[in-house]
């Protein structure tokens, strides 16, 4: 039995093995100690209670045995292909990046929806399926086929495969988190479109591949180098250069978090304290007469003045 497990894990790329073991280990801890609610993600927990760790922990938390089995089977099928294409260290980082982006998108979507219906801020989710949909979207763009089969029933253009799969999963399994899967499709599309390139510190990843992380992963016979770049980047990176590369990677992530927090705080402040606009009275057309202004007395002619004097005398009884 042990030999078969060694053969299995020896044939599976190390990144796939790492996240598979991580999900299983977290699930075992859940069975022993519980605490699914303490790890699931919701906009209320992240924004109101500042529990930012849920952005990561929710991806590796599962709600039941069938949930984790189905997710890991799908993950192993998809990630093996991508890991052989992009490399083990690269996929190790990319999956973590997808986890963070999906969590931020989920929180942002439900935080905005809570302004329409406040209880939505407490809607929670957990599971690795958001990341799986990110990987599924990437895989649909990198395969050479023009169309992909959906459950062996019909074929769709490969660029629409993830969207069709998302809709069918929501219909077949209405209890799953549509929003969590949608966030995965969005982040996967951002990656294949090149919008996440500024978050991919390739030189730092190659340095990690040649360093301690790579030395651990290379113990697997199925380890895959990052293609092309590992041939270009020389192995003579000094310790100072590695620190500089690591600093740039951390700086990029900090800037992303600060910008996100700034936008959330600005939106929340303007929602609680909306700006007060001074009422401006529109100018009236020149042809209109303002009733608040008294009319000026008009000069009378001599005849009109004489008639007024006669009327005044008649009123006193002087003139008949």
From TrEMBL:
UniProt-recorded Gene Ontology molecular function terms: serine-type endopeptidase activity
Recorded coiled-coil stretches: none
Membrane topology: Multi-pass membrane protein
Database matches in InterPro entries: Peptidase_S54_rhomboid_dom, Rhomboid-like_sf
Gene Ontology terms: cellular component: membrane
Similarity comment: Belongs to the peptidase S54 family.
Protein name: Rhomboid-like protease
The organism of origin for this protein: Blastocystis sp. subtype 1 (strain ATCC 50177 / NandII)
């Amino acid at each position: 039995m042990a030999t078969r497990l060694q053969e299995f894990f020896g044939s599976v790329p190390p990144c796939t093995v790492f996240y598979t073991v991580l999900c299983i280990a977290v699930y075992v801890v859940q069975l022993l100690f519980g605490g699914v609610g303490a790890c699931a993600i919701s906009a209320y927990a992240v924004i109101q209670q500042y529990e930012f760790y849920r952005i990561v922990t929710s991806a590796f938390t599962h709600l039941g045995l069938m949930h984790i089995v189905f997710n890991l089977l799908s993950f192993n099928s998809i990630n093996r292909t991508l890991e052989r294409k992009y490399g083990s260290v690269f996929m190790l980082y990319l999956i973590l990046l997808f986890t963070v982006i999906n969590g931020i998108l989920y929180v942002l979507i439900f935080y905005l929806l809570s302004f329409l219906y406040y209880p939505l801020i407490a809607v929670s989710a957990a599971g690795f399926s958001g990341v799986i949909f990110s990987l599924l979207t990437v895989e649909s763009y990198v395969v050479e086929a023009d169309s992909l089969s959906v459950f062996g029933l019909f074929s769709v253009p490969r660029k629409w495969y993830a969207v069709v799969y998302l809709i069918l999963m929501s219909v077949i399994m209405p209890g799953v988190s549509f929003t969590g899967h949608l966030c995965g499709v969005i982040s996967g599309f951002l990656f294949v479109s090149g919008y996440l390139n500024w978050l991919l510190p390739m030189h730092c990843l190659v340095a990690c591949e040649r360093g301690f992380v790579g030395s651990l992963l290379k113990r697997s016979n199925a380890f895959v180098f990052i293609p092309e770049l590992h041939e270009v980047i020389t192995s003579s990176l000094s310790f100072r250069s590695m620190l500089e590369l690591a600093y740039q990677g951390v700086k990029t992530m900090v800037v992303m978090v600060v910008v996100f927090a700034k936008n959330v705080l600005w939106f929340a402040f303007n929602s609680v304290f909306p700006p007060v606009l001074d009422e401006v009275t529109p100018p009236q057309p020149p042809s209109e007469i303002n009733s608040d202004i008294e009319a000026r007395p008009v000069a009378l002619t001599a005849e009109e003045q004489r008639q007024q004097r006669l009327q005044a005398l008649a009123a006193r009884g002087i003139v008949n």
